[in-house]
Specification:
heterodimer, A: about 375 residues, alpha+beta, Immunoglobulin-like, 4 domains, three-stranded antiparallel β-sheet, globular, B: about 35% strand, DNA replication (chain A), Sister chromatid cohesion protein DCC1 (chain A), Dcc1 (chain A), DNA replication (chain B)
Amino acid sequence: MSEIEVIFSPSTEDSGTFKLLELPPDLLKLVEAAVEGNSSLALSVKGGLEEDAVLCTDEKTYTMRSVVLSNSVLVVTPPQTEEGQVDRIAIRDQLHDVIELVPSLPKLHKLKGILRGAEYDEGHEDEEMDDEDIPAESSPMRRKFTYADALQLQASEGELRRGLRDMRILNVGGRLRPISPSFLNTILELILNHLVSESVPHNAVPVDQLCLALEEHEIRRTVTLQVLAWFGVIRGPSWEMNVDEVLKQVALGILRPHKDEPVSEDEFLAQWKRAVSDTFEAQVSLTLLEGNYLSTTLPNRFPALPALLYFPSSSLPIDPAARFTDLFLTRSRWKAQDIAPYLADIAVDSKERDKLLLKYARAMTDAEGVWYITRNKI
Amino acid sequence: MIIPITLPRSSSSAPSLPPALAKLGSSEVVLLELQGSLEVEGDRAGQAVGTLTFPEDNNAKPTLLIGHHLLEGKLVTLQKPLAVLHRAVLRTNPTSHNDEHGEGMRYDMLAIVRRKIVFSKRPMPVVNAAAVKAGMEKGEEEGKRKKVKVG
């Protein structure tokens, strides 16, 4: 039996300075490991005045939600002022809510708007040129947006790095600049040509030699190295190419002009195979392009000829309701496997994706299987 | 803006809680949950609230005596552990509105709490607190019966 005297904190400044944060199991493990000194963990809350705050670990982002309690929770600690008082505790704060954490997607879509006009293109590599054209003060958006600025976005650093890679954004002298798609394709073609002409294996390409070869085409070493990292792994002096990623990017370059005019599937595949040389011809497959094209048929042709339209999910709105509206405007009904790639970047996992489908779409079954149609207006 | 959260240090020289409470898992923080809340008139800083009695026997219930009210509590294991965060006091210029922009703000994670003491029942009135105290000292069982006199 021990009796403990409870007092209010002698300091009046304590009230309102405490928060209770509910730890989901995965985060709890990380925190425990870090406390025991087995690993390091950086935790931070990110958000602007207009945004809902998120909590970021090194790799993940969680939305913070305040959950109101009907009871009140007293935060009790040893008294801060007196030492050696073993039978005394102090109430530091009285709380009526806890913060719940919900895994969420990194909010990086802003980058696209922020970096508009900062594109890194062939012939326009010299960044000073841009800046002279437009006086800095005339447009605050033209301010150099750096990696440090990007860290302010609501995403963990790991997600930011992956996001920059997936959105093909270069870090040129500290400034973030999206590479222009056509310039990127030029670089990839040069790389593929280099592999063929020097007959080096694609899983062990000497990096130095490749950089020098590209410098002859006035492509800076720093750009080459970043592109190599996007499309493979650099280990010491050699680069292992990620064949699928390169093939996909090359295909997107061919498909991009066909946003409104469909291209015949056979013609497209033939063009794609030509572009990637004999070595990789066998690996060409439409599944690499999921979430980037729609199957259709060529107009005014009989019998129907399968064709493709460029339709990248990255061009669709981030807001789920707007995304579904766009999708159903494009197609009145979707097969589950066709719509899934267009929801991958707005849902954390497949469970979340199915929730979105339940909320915004209606399932319909006919002889061909399950279709999704819009919930609105019908 | 970015507000960093520091993690608890494994070995801390800060004063720790009485051993009976530290047994709950953290020597830094303990959470008491009340139905309703503590209302205080006037300056509360440093004022006495009451007495928390914590039995050695794990099956017995902790009690909180506030004035003439006795609350019976129970230990509850949290479904999801809670991290207790405390806003750090940073030496910034109080006239600048740094807080609003979060510059120089920091939260310290004091501890991870897995269990709390919940006082969910209605308080029982106690006529003579001193008598209760005396009764408790005599013996567990006897004390328990004696300490509550419903008036």
